[in-house]
């Protein structure tokens, strides 16, 4: 070979890697024009070696269509082998979800996909997907002509396991407690305790072992990135199939409970360390870290919820409250905290009263997002939790103001020495004042909150304050400033690693653009809001987006479209849990339906019944802006019945409830002008004042109707 161009292939070198390396080195020294192509689960370590890692096959995202899924090599391979095992099999709308799940859970590993496809001779594709929790037992039948170590999934990994040194085996099996990977410091803290047959390895020794497992293709690695950039510490991750195998080995070694307890302690510490810093200018970096650790945090909380100890479950759930809320995962937060409370009781264990109170408050705040059969928090438990949270002066105590709707719950925190708490108190107070129709004080509080969060570098708090300020500005008629506030809130969301596709800002933007005479832009924003609410699983916000789209159709004269859309909104609202938000929307939907049916020429009696229902729901809700909206819709009905005096009284009552005109609403301006023209200035003012003086304006309106 010395004088020739030769390609030499050495296949499957991992079990003879030392000998293969020495042979390759000698051959290359003797034959300079020789090229050696070696396949192995670890590098040969020869001078001049170029590594070409063979990655698993690419897998699609959940929810992909059959056409998009088949464009990924993992699905294409599975489909080909499945059709051979079961003639006629195809990836279609009925099978695509199960196929994608199989490909993802098997990490795109070709042999695993082939073995899974072969099971279709006896099972449906959905049955295969549902049994992947026992993948090593399920994928136990390969071709008879294959080498023994390639016949089953377990045999493939057994082969690699048998080639490991003992310390590598210890680390590999202990790494199985991590879900989604681990950094070197976390791997050392969790895995190095109680090392068998010797002293615990230091971080350098653990890093060497991780590198060796990485070289042997039993781990992969990635870098923690922020804002699209790869930076920060390396994360080491087991493929799920290897993790399942390693977890069996961990149990066999009798180390499962000890290692799981160390993992739980580590992630309780991480979450509690990060929680207060999320209210500082370190927010963005810490959110990226917590996002990367979500699998581990979930696994730790699941373990503590089902097996205890209760203290760790409560501490971890409470510490995760803030990142859950920042990320808009309120339903997830509610489900976790409700599960922790269901498992460990509504009576706080000694020493963890504060974290227990935070879990109770979070479960109550997020109750509207959960299933309607969720177990309610008893009033006495809720009262005790609020009292405990207030005494602790933790920011979650501010939730008391949102739950009670009274300014007094937020005011004690306005002068708090913690500037973040002061800014948050102004935001909460501004929301309460806005809901109570006190526009001036609300604006003062909200502008102070914006300034406070901006000075602290808290992007999330700033975005929340800007969105709430935009809601207020939309009422005062400052549409341009409101849209600018929403645009900046979107920028802050992107800065936090989000997509700016959050439902509430898009709802507000759609409403503003509709009022500014931009129906196409409004429809685009509202459609995006509906899609974002659907992705978040928030049925209340989905209903709000559907209501807004139907209202846009009504305002643009598409009455048949508006009627069908609003009836669909009503159909979806009726089975939802009885919450204030649902009551608000029911009142607004009935008013919208009344206005639509009036314009379609339906009998006044039928229209009046809808207004009566809307007035009743609005009064029951107690929400002053909603009551004002419903009374303004009723005023339009009165004008159509040639009763402008009743209409003017309703408008006066609405003005008092909201704390001013909804200056951004062109329909309201037209209605005010029409009532004034019908009555004359003096009579209009008298009716207006009479309406403003009514303590319960819905009652006479319902009686008159």
Automatic annotation (TrEMBL):
Domain Winged helix-turn-helix, by residue range, is 164-251
- Return the Pfam families for the record: HTH_77
Tell me which domain of life the UniProt entry assigns to the organism this sequence originates from: Bacteria
UniProt cross-references to InterPro entries, sorted A to Z: HTH_77, P-loop_NTPase, TPR-like_helical_dom_sf
Q: What is this protein called in UniProt?
A: Winged helix-turn-helix domain-containing protein
Q: Which organism is it from?
A: Kitasatospora cheerisanensis KCTC 2395
